[in-house]
Amino acid sequence: MLQIKKDDYQNLVSAHDQKRPILKNCLKAFFVGGFICVIGQGISFFYMYVFDFTEETVGDPTVATLIFITMLLTGFGVYDKIAQFSGAGTAVPVTGFGNAVISAAMEHRTEGFVQGVGANMFKLAGSVILFGVFSAFIVALIKTALMEFGVIG
Amino acid sequence: MVFLWAFIVGGIICVIGQLIMDIFKKTPGFTLSLLVVLGAILDGFGLYEPLVDFAGAGATVPITSFGNALVHGALLEAEKSGMIGVITGMFEVTSSGISAAIIFGMIGALLFKPKG
Question: Mind listing the pLDDT tens digit for each residue in A75-116?
C-alpha cells in the first residue's frame, strides 16, 4: 500500500505551488490602494468644504461614502474584477470590509432575509470586528489603568 | 500635497497587507484582522493620530483606522466616566463604518442579484 507521509505531502504541495509574483503583487496593491485613498481624500475635501466637517470628523462620512460606492461596484459585479487584479490594494482599504459585508449579504439572499442575509452578512467581516473590538478593549483598558494610577499622563 | 501623502501612506499600508498575504500565505480575513489589531495598538501608543494629521485619507481609509477609531472612542469615554467607559464608548467614533456596511449591505441585497 502506498503510504504518503506528511513531509512527502508538503513537498508535493510546494513543488506544485505556483511562485507568487510578490513584487508585482505589491506594486499593484500599492497603486490601487493608494488610488483609493486619493479618492477618499477627494471625498474628505468635498465634505470639509461643502459641509462643516473638520479634519478630525471627516473620516466618518468619507468611510460611509466609500462603502456606498463599494455597494454599487459590488452590485454591478465590477468590484470582484478589480479585487482580482489588485489583491490587498482593494482588501485593505475600508472598501474591502464593505465588500465582504455586502457581497455576503447579496450572495445569501436566496436563502431568505433572516436565515440568509441576516445570518451571513458578517460571515467574512465578523473576524475583523471581533479582533478589532477585543484588541481595542485590551489596549484601552491598559491605557486607562495606567493613566488612573498615574504611570502616564 | 495631502493627496500625494494619502497616496503613498495608503499604498504602503496596502503593500504591508499584500506582504502578509503573500509571504506568510494568510487569507485576506486574517490579514485584515491583523491590521485592525495593529491600528488599535498604534493608537494605544498615540501614534495613529499624527499619521492621520500627516496623511489624511491615507490613514483613515485603510482598515487600520477601524482599530484606531475603536480605541479612540473607548479612551474618550473612559476619560469622562472611568473604566466602564472603555466598554460604553467603544463604538462612539467608529459607528459610521459598521452602520454604513450594514445599511448598504441590506440595500444591496434588496437591489441586486448576485453575479457569477
Answer: 998 998 999 999 999 999 999 999 999 999 998 988 888 888
Using the CB atoms, write b or e for A115-144: b if 16+ within 10 Å.
ebbeebbbbbbbbbbebbbebbbbbbbebb
Residue A136: strand pairing partners: none
Nearest to A33 among B13, B75, B114 (CB): B13
Q: With an 8 Å Cβ cutoff, is B22 touching chain A? A: yes
Give per-residue pLDDT as tens, A35-66: 999 999 999 999 999 998 888 788 889 999 99
**Is the CB of B63 less than 8 angstroms away from the CB of A96?**
yes
Please name the member of B15, B61, B104 whose beta carbon is closest to the beta carbon of A30: B15
Pairwise CB contact (< 8 Å): A140 & B71: yes
pTM of the predicted protein model: 0.88
